[in-house]
Amino acid sequence: SRMALLPLLLLLPSLLFAAPNTPENPWGEYAADCLADQPPLWDDTRIMQKWYKIDLDAEPHEMWREVATDFGPTMDTTIDIVKTMADTFGGEGAWEALLGLMKDTPDMLPEPYKSEIKAMADLTGIQIEKLTLLNLFYEIAKACTSLVAMDEQGKVFHGRNLDFGLFFVWNTQEHTWDLTRGLRELVAQYEFMKDGKLLFKAVTFAGHLGILTAVRPGQYSMSTDTRFGSTLDTLTNFFLNGLDPDQEFLLYANRDMLTNYPTFEEARVFIEGVPFLARGYIIMGHMKGGMVITRSYNGTDHEAIIDPKQKNGWYVLETNYDWDKPDIFLDDRTIPGNKCMQQLGRKRVSKEGIFQVMSSKTTLNKATVYTSIIDIEAGVINTFKQECKDPCWFV
What we know:
Layout: H1 2-16, E1 52-55, H2 60-90, H3 94-101, H4 113-124, H5 128-137, E2 143-150, E3 156-163, E4 170-171, E5 176-177, H6 178-184, E6 187-194, E7 197-205, E8 213-216, E9 220-226, H7 232-241, H8 250-260, H9 264-273, E10 280-286, E11 289-295, E12 300-305, E13 315-318, H10 334-344, H11 351-358, E14 368-375, E15 380-385
Parallel strand pairs: 1-6
Antiparallel strand pairs: 2-3, 2-13, 3-14, 4-5, 6-7, 7-8, 8-9, 9-10, 10-11, 11-12, 14-15
Helix pairs in contact: 2-4, 2-6, 10-11
């Protein structure tokens, strides 16, 4: 809507005319900038260190107690940014109407998520409708870049930038989106345990029970990107009738996959077929390659698979656009991302090399919350909270 575009319209003049532009570089200082040949940015001191053990055999209150204690106040503050947006652009009563829509939703969630979200509300003291909104919000409003690349020895790495917060209150003093900044403080790392053993490692937002980025050590990795398009019909049906039989929220399906399917092939079969509430891209890596799965609500529309025999077939990269459609002009991340990967080249694929690409504009932008680099074989996720310093494109 025009209301949602208002921040963009207000911001564009300062961006487009802040630096001299040329026909070859129409965005001036805000143009794409590949760092593949620049000095290394990898810095061990920036890697997030704390990991929370999440025992899937535990009662929900015990399962989430430490996370709720550490992040409760930050969850509430971050959710209030959505309230500010609703009040500003939706008018009086918009926030209350939004929470009203969430009133009966917790009981419509499948187990174990229904019990866990109620436990999280008990532990944090946050209104359960607010927590439900946090859990549903990612189904309808997110953007990302993910890639999987194979080095010359056949070792596979998975990189992802999580972008979230575009249009949610531009902070004119900090030059950032308030929601993006708030979500940086909610990034949490989990080690999911069952029967006393590690199942998988994951990076997500505290308070959200689904999974955004993860690895099953020595087996497979995954990340999820938005597939743009309306979810109005499926969301309306959910609020009126609940989930259809076998249907899942995308991020909950990710967690179910990681919990129940130990091998890549088993996981792939599940995630390609389970009915979703929202469309999406599932980017997966494994010991011998990787792929982008383009998901519709009820099946898989397309697969892009690593094939080193093909030109540039040693990697796959996905932003938020279909394989046969270009990025919109104001959100061109696919072309710069591919150019930067090709500039890096297969010979320089490594955790450090992938991090250079993920830190390059426009892959890195004002909505970027974090970057994760995954070594599948070692079962290691290195996560960096990211902030794109000026001059930096706003999407």
